[in-house]
Amino acid sequence: MVASQGFVYYQQHDQAASFRVEGRCTMTQALPFRRQAESCLAQGCRLIRVDLRDCSHLDSTFLGTLLSLKKQLERHSGRFFLVSPSMACTRILEQMGLLDLLPTESTLAVEDGNWTLLGSDSNDLLSFKRNVVEAHEELAALPGPTGQQFQEVLRCIQQVDPTVPSPAPSVPPINPSK
After folding, report:
1. Same domain, yes or no, for 64 and 132?
2. Is the CB of residue 84 less than 8 Å from the CB of residue 106?
3. Are residues 38 and 56 in the same domain?
4. Which residue, 3, 51, 75, 163, shows the most beta carbons closer than 10 Å to its own?
5. Are residues 67 and 137 in the same domain?
6. Residues 129 and 112 grouped into a single domain
7. Residues 35, 19: contact at Cβ < 8 Å?
């Protein structure tokens, strides 16, 4: 049975890290996931797999975080795969135009034991906000209507909370006269 709230588990073997996502994964799980994946990269990991077979939902922050990690791995000649996305995740990826950008594989080649549950980073509000903005910057950089929609999301985030870091230069600044 798929969990209603989201959980992210991980395990690392040498230069490969595997993550298992269960339930609804949102901005709440995105920062701990990103931090653990970046820690694995810093330790020399060059392969990251994200198992989505038991995931019922991915929000835009989690999706943007996936895109960001994929790009980081590519810069280090690494590889990134989604593993067996559930039907719900596949539908979300299709709607967002991300199926071609996030490669998938059908099996997770790691042991079933020794998974570690990632905790929450709820006390680090600045890092949380920064991750939300960076994830949406990744989505805003996509070509076509998806990118345009997330450029608008970034503008709205900046209007609501002026403490949020400024969007990437590719996103036009907010025009206060409108």
Report:
1. no
2. yes
3. yes
4. 51
5. no
6. no
7. no
d(CA 152, CA 134): 14
Q: Label residue 106 left, alpha or beta by phi (over 0 means left) and psi (-120 to 50 means alpha).
A: alpha
Does this model's pTM top 0.70? My answer is: yes
Torsion, Cα of 49, 39, 79, 76 (10° steps): 180
Residue 87's domain comprises 7-117
| 122: DSSP letter | T
Q: Which of 82, 69, 77 is nearest to 134 (CA)?
A: 69
Instruction: Please tell me whether residues 111 and 132 are part of one structural domain.
Output: no
Average pLDDT value for residue range 9-27: 94
- Counting the structural domains of the chain, the total is 2
- Say yes or no: 62 and 142 in one domain: no
Cβ neighbourhood burial of 77 (10 Å; 0-12, 13-18, 19+):
exposed
